[in-house]
Amino acid sequence: MARSQGIRKRCFSSPTKGVNMQKVEMREAIRQAIDEEMAADERVFILGEEVGYYNGPYKITKGLLDKWGPKRVIDTPICEASFAGLAIGAALTGLRPIVEFMSFNFSLLAFDQIISNAVKMHYMSGERFSVPVVFRGPNGAAAQVSCQHSHAVEGAYSLFPGITIMTPSNPYDAKGMLKSALRYNNPVLFLESELLYNDTMEIPTEEYTIPIGKADIKRAGKDVTLICHARTVKTCLEAAQELQSQGVSVEVLDLRTIKPLDIQTIAQSIRKTHFAVLVEEGHIFAGISSEVCFRIQETCFDYLDAPVGRVCQRETPMPYSKVLEQETLPNPRRVVAQVKQTMNV
Amino acid sequence: MTHSDSPPIFAHDANNVLEKIGQEKLLKMLRQMLLIRQFELRAEASYQQGKIGGFLHLYIGEEAIQTAAVEVLGPNNWYSATYRCHAITLLLGESPESMMAELFGKKSGNAQGRGGSMHMYSKRLLGGFGIVAGQLPVATGAAFTCKYLNKKDELSVCFFGDGAMAQGVFHESLNLASMWGLPCLYVIENNKWSMGTPLKRTLANYDQFPHKFAESYGARYIRLDGMDLTNCYAGFQEAKKHVLSEQKPMVIECLTDRFRGHSVSDPGLYRTKEELAKCMEQDPLLVCKQYLEKKNWLTDEKYKEMERECREQIIKAVKYADEAPWPDPKELESGVLAPPLKV
Fold first, then answer.
1. Per-block mean pLDDT, blocks of 10 residues, chain B (343 long)
2. Catalytic choice (A149, A151, A229, A283)
């Protein structure tokens, strides 16, 4: 595929020894990516609800208005369709906007703009126009925010050719992936998780990027592969710990980019472990797991020792009650049970 | 359709405007309108022959609006339009050959045969947009870029139909443009029909609506006679001056009529033959022709000669499109993603 991320400096796939490190929260890592790209390119600006004077609904943009001023850090009214469409128009005419959605549930108001005008534009215009815009913000469930604020949207958006979807699971990835997204020349959905914003991690102080379309092994193992993304990476790492104590060696594969899908890394892992369980926060019907599973049977059917298992959100809108919310989301207990069922142990 | 209390048409002295434009430029604009008309007529015929598929929305009857707009505002602005986008594409300099080839679905078409009738482009045309009102936020974004890059002599020009006024993004866009001082010219091409539904069944207080609406967002509004090239010319001049000097959005409502159905597949059963015939008395080409004849700047003979030349030019374009090669199915999946920018 003809694609490069226009990487200017170093490119690591995981934190590297021998460089200066800083301990940051996920929100700080995201902020650093935005800030550095704004410094590198005057065409980059950010707009969204409460990103300026309020310093960001989740404090991602804290301090950016003071540093860059209201020309480049822009508070919008509550009108997702038009501010997303405005950003698309700005991208079509030479700027490089970042759109913050307070929640990706609100992006559904801008769905037509994102799909009809951003994602299809390059192809539809006979390659006359490109749309370098990043839509970012928290996706999926937070803590008991109920039916209309908890949807994981990646399945819905992934249907459309032309879209790139990235889902970081830790501060290191978030910064490096967002920097690549901001240098890309196509529309990117950058799906964060509110419940990861407080997570801290050592990341390099030196500039780095992580390429689009590369999965990452977060824990090496030999008996079964857990394929996950975003917040479910943490769920899977916990489940892997538990399974280890029961004598099962688990490999945890973080997709990082949903689309394009890194099927090579997936296949490589499954050829080693022969068992796969797919874990995602989105719903089970026609979700990301459906596609990943199909690609697995296409690519490495003969290496599978059992049908692929999956743990997804159950088929209801997200209920408010914490008892129900915990049950419908993938959790370590459900993952452990599914691994045992798939492996028949 | 206008009531006595509805906003008046923008006042202009036609003769004065004609004198200011001059014979040469008027003949050029008349030729552009003739070329648009011939393009649409030949496209319609080709559609009926099965050479063109999908939807085909014709601009016949509305030619004066975009012809005047591009002449007055100039090509060096951002433009966006509805799916009724052939005229604006031609006016912004794309060739009839590449456009007809697009309609025929050919590789050398305006959008490589991927967009079709509703999605045509130029360097400065962000597209014909297929979703009603979908282009409004995008056009507002183009105006944002003008402001961001401090290009004080450029504006964004957004054409849309009266049907778009019921969409939420119409309101949202004008709110943003007014609040942020964006140089966007919103041009309502009011042909009085949202497909087959009249304005009075789609908008509350329909005759006052655009006027009051613009006013409530603090944007200037004028209403033009979209069938009269001179009135459009004068109105767009006023708009250009206002938008660029004030760095504010403005709303123009052009009253017009489409002489065909919503698309070629629409027989237009919602209006009577008499109503349509009455509209066609105001044919913008004939209105323009009469102005020029009155000034002794045009004879009927010269008009027919221009019409014949335009017809021949379009017939050539049809022949070109017919003979042009199809896209290679092997290339079907290329061009979905843009290549990296050259840094």
1. 73 97 98 98 97 97 98 98 98 98 98 98 98 98 98 98 96 97 98 92 88 94 98 98 98 96 91 93 97 98 98 98 98 95 63
2. A149
ipTM surpassing 0.90: yes
Assign a CATH topology to domain A10-209.
Rossmann fold (3.40.50)
Q: Pick from A314, A143, A336: which is nearest to A231 by CA? A: A143
**Chain B 23-82, residues with CB within 8 Å of chain A CB atoms:** 78, 80
Q: What is the largest CA-CA distance in chain B?
A: 61
Closest in A76, A87, A122 to B338, CB measured = A122
| Model pLDDT, residue A7 | 40
Which CATH number fits the domain A216-343, given the four candidates 3.90.870.10, 3.90.25.10, 3.40.50.920, 3.40.228.10? 3.40.50.920
The answer to whether A80 is a known catalytic residue is: yes
Residue B130, chain A, CB below 8 Å: the answer is yes
- Do residues A291 and A229 lie in contact, with contact meaning Cβ atoms separated by under 8 Å? no
Which 3-state string (H, E, C) describes B254-286?
EECCCCCCCCCCCCCCCCCHHHHHHHHCCCHHH
Measured CA distances, B246 to A40, A76, A277, B213, B219 (Å): 32, 22, 61, 19, 11
List, for chain A, all residue ranges whose pLDDT scores fall below the cut of 70: 1-18
Domains (range + CATH), chain B: 14-323 (3.40.50.970)
Distance from CA of A151 to the nearest CA of B (A): 24
In this predicted structure, what is the pLDDT of residue A5? 42
Residue A149 falls in the annotated catalytic set: yes
